[in-house]
Amino acid sequence: MPLLTFIYSHDDMFDAVKQESSLYSIRQTDKDGNPMFETLVFDEAYLPKFRELFFNAQAQIIPTLSAYQKNIPIEPEYFERKDFSKKRDYICYLNMPDDFMMSMAQPIEDYIFSFLKDWIMYKWLETKMSNIASVFLANCIGVDGSGGYKSDIKGALEKRTQPIRRWHGYW
Q1: Looking at residue 160, what is its pLDDT?
Q2: Pair 105, 112: CB distance under 8 Å
Q3: Rounded to the nearest 5°, which phi and psi values hold at 80?
Q4: 168/63 Cα distance (integer angstroms)
Q5: What is d(CA 3, CA 63) in angstroms, rounded to the nearest whole number?
Q6: Using CA atoms, how far apart are residues 47 and 95, in angstroms rounded to an integer?
Q7: pTM here?
Q8: Helix or strand or coil: residue 70?
Q9: Mean of the pLDDT values across residues 121-129?
Q10: What is the pLDDT of residue 33?
């Protein structure tokens, strides 16, 4: 069974969220027409909040990946959410079937990264301006029949090199 390993570092994810919030905040204006840069940017002053939202995003994506996740036994250890020296990165190990289409590894990695980034943005904007947070939520879970990143991830995980035979036909 091929093993896919994806690493989403704390620093890279924070930089991506900071950049996304910066680009988004420049396009948003208050009632006086001023950019909302100071209000909406997710910068270093909010690192504890970022850590909380990063864990929350991981918790949201794990059920989507659970059918393929490798169970890695770990030694019990003391964990403190505010200890930034431990558990900083999200490492995802997926056991894929032998007939998995390996060319889908890159899109899966990208979909997971985009989900994590947009979920953090959604939760961040939900605390700042809930009316515009829905844009990022729609990217994550989809609206009006589209499945968003979760649906894209599930679909990519199901790609095989040969069609699966079901009920005397190929689907």
Answers
A1: 86
A2: no
A3: -125, 125
A4: 31
A5: 18
A6: 32
A7: 0.84
A8: coil
A9: 90
A10: 83
